[in-house]
């Protein structure tokens, strides 16, 4: 096959040629945009899922829908070491510019408020040259969104930006990637601002994307966050959508897959969008001709797995210290053991009452045959240590985004198939 015409695009946040399996989220968001534009009440949106399921891609697609609807939009990626003011101010600046409000004086007023909001982050008594300059030409407006209390300031900022958007019958949407990394105080302020804006009926929404424990982060901040956001879990693709992600781009280049090849691709990728693109790219380059066969995929699999081992898995594993790597390997062993026990229990249950076993592929299990989440006590048992002695390694891995805790006493990998990778490396 000609590598120049290879249609597959494995990359962080890179939109695949066929955005399959996300039609429901796109349709829902179009309804949200239209309802808010008509003055109807709507909730902000939170997308959650493991790494590699396409959250960033979907976040960018939703932003594209907002831009096409004439909304003002801004996007930023949260970082554990950065507070909210600067990235949000930059996003607000971009959103106001996109909005295209016709009255320059009113726009300058709001831009001045954004400038004051961003500069309030500077230490008391800091000189002008030491203050962050957001690239806004308008003079800073004092007395609005600059109190120093992030919750008060954010409510005032959203109120003024929302009023500007309401003037032109449009809205403002902020898109926040890696939302679980927003500082706890800023998460609380963001929830409070969204709550206030929804009560005021102003056309401002936040669309966040993050790891599976993001709802727990929001709930810990404000109890009403469960009712404040519309939550959508982004998971691996079902078989028909995974096939479309492969077949659609190939057909554009007059190529096709045999049915057996599609079976093999789903078996090795488990429907995870990033894996589909990664395997698809290597398979295309390796296959001698169309149609692409199951044998072509088996030949390409070692090269695809090698690339994933370096770029997708290995780069994350290298961030861990020796003690943290030991913890990760113990997690992988505990997850496989738990998965095997669950599969045995499912088979026993099926034999007893005739039901179809849940087993691997069920909501609590990964297609690799390992349990998604395992007790921290099970990890300690593998290592022959007390759970309390492992807390520093566990907490450090959570901060690095390698594992997460969706419920008390249980942990899981943020990267699909990471346990299988660790066992292969061992």
Automatic annotation (TrEMBL):
<dbReference type="GO" id="GO:0009055">
    <property type="term" value="F:electron transfer activity"/>
</dbReference>
<keyword id="KW-0408">Iron</keyword>
<feature type="region of interest" description="Disordered">
    <location>
        <begin position="1"/>
        <end position="23"/>
    </location>
</feature>
<feature type="domain" description="Cytochrome c">
    <location>
        <begin position="166"/>
        <end position="273"/>
    </location>
</feature>
<dbReference type="InterPro" id="IPR041664">
    <property type="entry name" value="AAA_16"/>
</dbReference>
<protein>
    <submittedName>
        <fullName>AAA ATPase-like protein</fullName>
    </submittedName>
</protein>
<dbReference type="InterPro" id="IPR009056">
    <property type="entry name" value="Cyt_c-like_dom"/>
</dbReference>
<feature type="compositionally biased region" description="Low complexity">
    <location>
        <begin position="349"/>
        <end position="367"/>
    </location>
</feature>
<keyword id="KW-0349">Heme</keyword>
<keyword id="KW-0479">Metal-binding</keyword>
<dbReference type="InterPro" id="IPR027417">
    <property type="entry name" value="P-loop_NTPase"/>
</dbReference>
<feature type="region of interest" description="Disordered">
    <location>
        <begin position="349"/>
        <end position="375"/>
    </location>
</feature>
<dbReference type="GO" id="GO:0020037">
    <property type="term" value="F:heme binding"/>
</dbReference>
<dbReference type="GO" id="GO:0046872">
    <property type="term" value="F:metal ion binding"/>
</dbReference>
<dbReference type="Pfam" id="PF13191">
    <property type="entry name" value="AAA_16"/>
</dbReference>
């Amino acid at each position: 096959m000609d590598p120049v015409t290879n249609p597959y695009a494995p990359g962080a946040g890179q939109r695949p040629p066929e955005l399959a399996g996300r039609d429901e989220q796109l349709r829902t968001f179009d309804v949200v945009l239209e309802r808010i534009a008509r003055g109807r009440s709507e909730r902000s949106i939170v997308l959650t899922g493991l790494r590699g399921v396409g959250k960033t891609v979907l976040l960018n697609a939703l932003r594209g829908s907002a831009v096409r609807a004439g909304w003002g939009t801004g996007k930023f990626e949260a970082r554990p070491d950065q507070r909210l003011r600067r990235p949000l101010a930059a996003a607000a600046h971009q959103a106001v510019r996109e909005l295209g409000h016709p009255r320059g004086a009113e726009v300058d007023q709001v831009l001045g408020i954004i400038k004051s909001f961003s500069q309030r982050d500077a230490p008391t008594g800091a000189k002008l040259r030491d203050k962050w300059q957001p690239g806004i030409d308008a003079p800073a407006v004092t007395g609005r969104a600059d109190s120093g209390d992030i919750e008060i300031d954010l409510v005032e900022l959203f109120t003024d930006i929302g009023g500007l958007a309401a003037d032109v019958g449009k809205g403002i949407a902020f898109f926040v990637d890696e939302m679980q990394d927003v500082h706890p105080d800023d998460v609380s302020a963001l929830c409070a601002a969204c709550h206030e804006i929804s009560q005021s009926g102003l056309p401002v929404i936040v669309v966040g994307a993050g790891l599976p424990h993001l709802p727990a982060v929001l709930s810990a901040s404000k109890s009403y966050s469960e009712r404040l956001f519309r939550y959508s879990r982004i998971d691996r693709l079902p078989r028909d959508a995974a096939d479309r992600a492969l077949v659609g781009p190939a057909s554009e280049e007059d190529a096709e897959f045999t049915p057996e090849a599609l079976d093999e691709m789903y078996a090795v990728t488990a429907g995870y969008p990033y894996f589909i693109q990664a395997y698809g790219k290597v398979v295309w380059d390796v296959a001698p001709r169309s149609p692409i066969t199951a044998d072509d995929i088996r030949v390409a699999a070692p090269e695809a797995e090698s690339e994933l081992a370096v770029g997708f898995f290995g780069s994350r594993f290298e961030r861990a210290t020796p003690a943290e790597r030991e913890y990760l390997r113990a997690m992988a062993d505990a997850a496989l053991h738990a998965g095997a026990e669950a599969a045995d229990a499912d088979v026993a249950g099926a034999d007893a009452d005739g039901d179809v076993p849940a087993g691997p592929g069920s909501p609590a299990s990964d297609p690799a045959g390992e349990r998604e989440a395992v007790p921290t006590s099970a990890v300690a048992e593998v290592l022959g240590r007390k759970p309390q002695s492992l807390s520093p390694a566990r907490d450090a891995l959570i901060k690095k985004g390698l594992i997460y805790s969706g419920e008390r006493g249980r942990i899981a990998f943020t990267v699909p198939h990471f346990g299988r990778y660790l066992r292969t490396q061992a």
